[in-house]
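Final report, closing paragraph on structural work. Over the funding period we assembled a curated collection of sequence-structure pairs, and we close with a single example.
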Amino acid sequence: MFQKSSHTPRQPTPSPGATETSTAPGENKVSTHGLSRIGGKTTLHGDISGDEDLLIDGRIMGNVLFRKHSVTVGNDGIVEGRMVARELTVRGRVDGILIAAEKITLKAGAVVNGELHAPGLVLEDGAAFHGNIDMKPEQDELREAFETGTTHADSAAPESAHPGAVPSRVEEADTFPADDRSTPVSGS
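Its predicted structure, as stored:
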């Protein structure tokens, strides 16, 4: 009465825009499907926000606001500013304030100077951190960053970060300026 199908189940195929990128030699590849990416030769001056996961291989000089999504700073990625995300992973360099609703992960080779605010923290051997950590789940920084409506990060955003404003300048560069990841960057 019931017969077993003779064909094999169809394997999922990647969508035409899906690619994979390796995070470092010997590490697993990361699928970039459904992921925004700031490329390694791109420098962005200004704030950036979005509604999908983000991979930063380039340089951002401004705030990164992805409250409902994950943000990863790649091995060569550099961020100078405030980062707010559901989950933050750093492999490169960040100078600023990191705020995550769930957790912050500093991978081996990461260099972070500033403040960490999250209920969970993973600090791998070989990661360098200079600054302050607050892991209280009920802290003001978390409440302000993840409330709906205007937050401290939004109100501090330049006029260009608001709807209808002129977009920020994006530069293409052949190489980054010399970067000594072992030396903390002094704030102004």
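The first strand starts at residue 20 and ends at 22. The chain is about 5% helix and 40% strand. We thank the funder for supporting this effort.
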